[in-house]
Design brief:
It is a single chain. Among the domains are: about 115-295, no CATH class; about 325-368. It contains 13 helices and twelve strands. The protein has helices at about 5-25, 50-60, 75-85, 100-105, 115-130, 150-165, 175-180, 200-205, 270-280, 295-325, 325-335, 345-355, 360-365; strands at about 40, 70, 85, 90, 145, 175, 185-190, 215-220, 235, 260-265, 265-270, 290. A hairpin with a 2-residue loop joins strand 10 (about 260-265) and strand 11. The termini are far apart. The relative contact order is 0.09.
Length: about 375
């Protein structure tokens, strides 16, 4: 066979193969599976250890590679950042929901899905509604928190929520209108560490509340049981409207994005929890690793101590007046004689009640 004939056969073979590949590609048969992995590929067809000339010409080190060797490209940094996204020290998935590590720290069920945007809303409301910021524009506000232990805050709220709805909320994925109608309209509780100036406590110095030991004592199911003027009862609203985002929220209203919790076939437990937060509390709570900025704590502590001293002074002065009715009598008599005070029966009763005097008539004998 001549060289020309041999060459023609090779070219014919190449052309035939090319046509075959083209036909397969047009028919959608060609597989690109080997190109789908951007991280690694196998060098199956380069037997560098057996072809030193190829290695020499290409610069490959045959001692480092073999027929089944792999070349690893650097991982995509952008994708790596997304996959390792965090919020408040815990993992966040691609959809924006907090990871299993957050649920565990916050005492939430494993399948409970709370969105990062909800936590951001809690942080923003707490920042904006603080005494030092409440009358300031957003760009003028003071940074309040050095660190927010969001898992601890959610844990406190979820513990109360579970006490309120635990026995009335069946274990299922979605809930209907009937389920919502069975939930309480209010509750009362004890065990809250609120702000106290008599005696002065840590919560007063931080201007924060600790609800970690709150125990629900009573649940109310009728609207007339929940009086508007009863400070001991916290009103609840589990209406369908409360489980949607308010398009015209009032000033400083807690208004989380509800779209992550909404479903066409009903209401999720997460949506009901959001509704609970709207009614029962939604600011950062004292506890865990939550810390105020040092400058903020210095100011709040100073204000709390000054308030405590003022209240103690008022208490002492009231005590002195109660124990010295003769001084009160003489002082009022002096005012009356100088036409500075027009005393009648109702005045006597009012003054006596203010100072908790046992017998107003005896004190006012001879004055009017």
């Amino acid at each position: 066979m001549s060289v020309v004939s041999s060459t023609d056969q090779k070219y014919s073979s190449i052309i035939s193969t090319a046509k075959e590949l083209k036909a397969k590609k047009e028919a959608g048969v060609v597989s690109f599976s080997r190109m789908s992995d951007p991280i690694t590929f196998k060098m199956d067809n380069l037997e560098l250890d057996k072809n030193p000339d190829i290695a020499k010409n290409t610069g490959f080190d045959t001692t480092a590679l073999s027929k089944k060797s792999k070349i690893t490209y650097p991982k995509n940094e952008f994708m790596s950042d997304i996959l390792s996204s965090t919020a408040y020290g815990y993992s966040v998935n691609l959809a924006g929901f907090m990871g299993a590590d957050f649920n565990k720290a916050a005492g939430l069920p494993e399948n409970f899905k709370i969105h990062k945007s909800t936590l951001e809303e809690i942080a923003n409301i707490s920042q904006s509604s603080h005494l030092f910021n409440i009358f300031k524009a957003p760009h003028e506000q003071t940074k309040i928190y050095e660190n927010i232990d969001m898992a601890n805050t959610i844990k406190q709220y979820y513990n109360i929520f579970n006490q309120v709805v635990g026995k009335d909320l069946p274990n299922k994925e979605v809930y209907g209108i009937v389920d919502l109608s069975r939930l309480p309209t209010g509750f009362s509780s004890n065990g809250v560490k609120g702000i106290s100036f008599k005696p002065l406590n840590a919560q007063a110095e931080k201007m924060m509340v600790d609800r970690s030991n709150e125990k629900v004592t009573n649940l109310y199911y009728l609207s007339d049981q929940v009086a508007d003027n009863d400070a001991n009862i916290k009103k609840l609203n589990f209406s369908p409207k409360s489980m949607s985002t308010d398009q015209n929220p009032s000033w400083l209203a807690f208004n989380p994005d509800m779209s992550p919790y909404q479903r066409d076939d009903g209401y999720t437990k997460e949506a009901i929890f959001m509704s609970f937060l709207k009614s029962a509390g939604h600011t950062v709570l004292d506890g865990g690793e939550t810390r105020l900025e040092p400058e903020v704590f210095a100011r709040t502590s100073q204000m709390a101590r000054a308030t405590a001293k003022l209240l103690e002074k008022i208490k002492m002065e009231a005590s002195i007046l109660q124990n010295e009715p003769e001084n009160i009598k003489n002082y009022i008599k002096f005012l009356s004689e100088n036409n500075a005070l027009d005393i009648n029966k109702s005045d006597k009763e009012t003054i006596s009640s203010i100072f908790s005097l046992p017998d107003g008539n005896k004190i006012f004998n001879g004055i009017a």
